[in-house]
Amino acid sequence: MSFSISFRRVAAALVVSLPFFAPPAIAGDVILDNLTSREDRGLTRIARVEVINSNLTADEVRRLLETSGDEKMQLELLSRLKADRMTINGLTFSGDDGTMIFAPILMSGIDQGRVARIMLDGVDMDLRMADTKGTSQLKVRALDIERADFASLLKAVLAGRPEEIDFRAEKFVWAGFEWSGADDKVKADAPGGNRMRLSLAGVNATTQYDGAVPVRSTAEINGFAIELPPTSEGGRAFADMGYKKLEFSVAGQMRYDPAKRDLAIENYALTGVNVGRLILSGTFGNIDPTLLSGGVPEQKLAALMLANISQLDIRFVNEGAVENGFAFAAQQQGKTAPALRSEASMIVGQMLPMLLGGDPAALPLARSAQDFLRESKNFTLSLKSRGAPVPVARLSSINDPSTFFALVDVQLKSNQ
């Protein structure tokens, strides 16, 4: 399902304006009122733009904001722009694609692609779907970004090297969004309606940098939820698995030591409501800064091959996923859930040692996997290098289980 409204129009609407009659101006404060832009598919209006202590003239600001302006010229102006503050009030779009109403936008401390703070109070969109006769509604809540750096991004785009695009921000706080749209395969009067819904409760991320390299970051992505019409194919599948909707959150932190080139991922957890938690932790070495900051893909791949792994821990805490999964599979196969559990446990006990080449280390792994399938409380899979950290390039070249087990100590503990 797609929308006829273009990304370019949405992006342009954030800073849009059109030619207007104004006296010649010199650099300083630029104030533009009642700007309109009529295009083939609609009308854009902006009540007022203020640029305080700008190094651009009024005419340059106008050309920067024109929707029909030359993109390269606009990027050059944007990369040159300095201003204490820029505010955009009363920005709206209406036309064939629908309507968009923007709350006030404030940017402060603008310095050649770097912005001390960006605040957007929200956006309400009512959009027409391109492939159906229905509409979708999107409500974007408040966004607050501190100490953002778009300079390298602008430089990469101007140079025609999109693979080098990089963006940095020390603080990113977003109150999330709500979206709903009609499922064209479900009738509007169907039980429970025909609306699909996506929502996000919020994002909170902070990053500390050493130059261009992030050395510490924390992130929380809360309440990403998916809800489908009850009578749709997906909605029925959700119901068969015991869910009205699926809702997930992610949280964790990362630390990087530029001097030692060590990277630690600490308790990155994916949590599903009535599903469970998947928690990842790891210690990695010889991490080149290009892996964490801007760089061409070829450079990143080469750097990745030189990295190494000391330890990786994966923990899963079951909070309904296993029971619901077995119940769903049993219904599909015409069996009982306990019978299917027993069958799965037997297959794992027989097949896992075979898949791992009959290595003696496979037997305790198989027993722990069977324990989890029987009781399904939790499991922790730990992989630790035997001796020196294992290079990624070495791991990628392994083609037999015995070589892997010679390099890595693998432990699986269940229901502890």
pLDDT below 50 for ≥5 consecutive residues: which ranges? Answer: 1-26
**What structural class should be given to the helix and strand makeup?**
alpha+beta
Largest sheet: 12 strands, antiparallel, barrel
| First-residue to last-residue Cα separation | 45 Å
Query: What is the helix tally?
Result: 11
Q: What is the helix content?
A: 25-40%
How many β-strands, per DSSP? 21
What's the oligomerization state?
single chain
Mean of residue pLDDT?
88
What's the shape?
Answer: flat
Give me the Rg, rounded: 27 Å
Strand content: 35-45%
Kindly describe this structure:
- The protein contains 11 helices and 21 strands.
- It has 416 residues and is α+β, with helices and mostly antiparallel strands.
- It has a domain at 1-136 and 148-171.
- It is flat, with a radius of gyration of 27 Å.
Task: Note the topology.
Elements: H1 7-13, E1 28-39, E2 42-54, H2 58-65, H3 71-80, E3 82-95, E4 98-102, E5 105-111, E6 114-120, E7 123-128, E8 135-140, E9 143-149, H4 151-158, E10 168-174, E11 177-182, E12 195-200, E13 202-210, E14 213-227, H5 233-240, E15 246-257, E16 262-272, E17 276-285, H6 297-306, E18 308-318, H7 321-333, H8 337-355, H9 362-375, E19 378-385, E20 390-391, H10 392-396, H11 401-407, E21 408-414
Antiparallel strand pairs: 1-2, 2-3, 3-4, 3-5, 4-7, 5-6, 6-9, 7-8, 8-11, 9-10, 10-13, 11-12, 12-14, 13-14, 14-15, 15-16, 16-17, 17-18, 18-19, 18-20, 19-21
